UniProtKB/TrEMBL annotation:
Keywords: Signal. The keyword Kinase does not apply. Residues 1-23 form the signal peptide. It comes from the Bacteria. InterPro entries: TPR-like_helical_dom_sf (IPR011990), TPR_rpt (IPR019734). This is Tetratricopeptide repeat protein.
Amino acid sequence: MIKQFPMRYVLLLAAGISLFACNAPNAPDDRSKNDPQHPGKGQFTAVISEDQIFDKQLVLHAVSLTEGKSKVSDKYFLKGVDAYRNQKNPEEGVKLFKQSILQQPQARAYFELGNALADLNNLKDAASAYQIAELLDYKPTSKVLYNLACVYSRAEVEESARYYLISAIEFGYSNAKNIFEDKDLAYLRDNTSDFQGMVTVALSGATDPDKLQWNLFWHEFKPVSYPLVLDERYSKKLGEDYISYEYERFVAEMRDSKFSRDVGVEFYHVGLAKATDSIKTIIYATKDVMISENTPAEYYIVSFDHVGKLIDKLLIGGHEKLADPFRVATLRENGDIEIGLFNQVYKKDPEKEGYDDNELVDVKLLEKQLYNITDDGHFVRKDNLLGMNR
């Protein structure tokens, strides 16, 4: 689906309103993954060089050269988040985010690179990083546009700051309190006639702010194909369909696993299980990638009302603790959810050794449970069918 941009944002890009124009570097060479002149960690080598990192066309070309997930890129990214957010070291964060991008350009790495560069007052490169994050479809779009408004305001480029702020609002940014109090927007507020009126008009053109954020969130979940089986093999299908931490109000586990406490947990869209005008039932996955890349995911099914208020929630796949039975869920179009509870025995203790090169030596079915998604969005346990546990 082609993204529809607000007209003022299209005009801004077309006009090239920017303080931060830069010369394009040379095109990247097509390097072999095993080229010893460009060594990388593990099986990956750099697909772009550091002097090409902010060239949009070369970045898009580099993205086209990479397939699947790069473990090396992901590890650099998580180390960068740890350095930047936990250790409060933006300089080290910049180095690590760049290393992540050199291995495989990703929207989230460019977004965090922009944040770290902005903290270091490198506004030119911060703007470039944010622009490429948006080019690579960082979600939510409103957040990266808002950060661009802040960078341009700090650089005292009123026209660009104003365009990006209004564009951010049109893409769903609705935190009016932050708009009127954020110190990064001080220049724009002080130098825009009737700033309050401009923002009020922009916000009035949007729907209710809370409902808008909810709509942005649930629309990222695509309808699932039935029957849907959520097991260990499904974990490999999760790919890079990450859920942004901007939506933590809808994903309770994010509030328990913020980067400030645990940098190894990632969240993924699975799909939209059921949708009516008043109720949306979604499925998402969470995975601790710091333990092992092959760590099984946990799967949650959650129902919300029309404004994103929680109705009900159920863990249907994986397990939150290794001592708990491992769940495997099968969902059907009629709303039935069959959950098998298994006891798994690995050759080595996964808590100590992880899941890489760790053979699953025994699996025993303990129990089967059957739930149904009711019309009001609850998950109701049904009596086991005759012979179900046999």
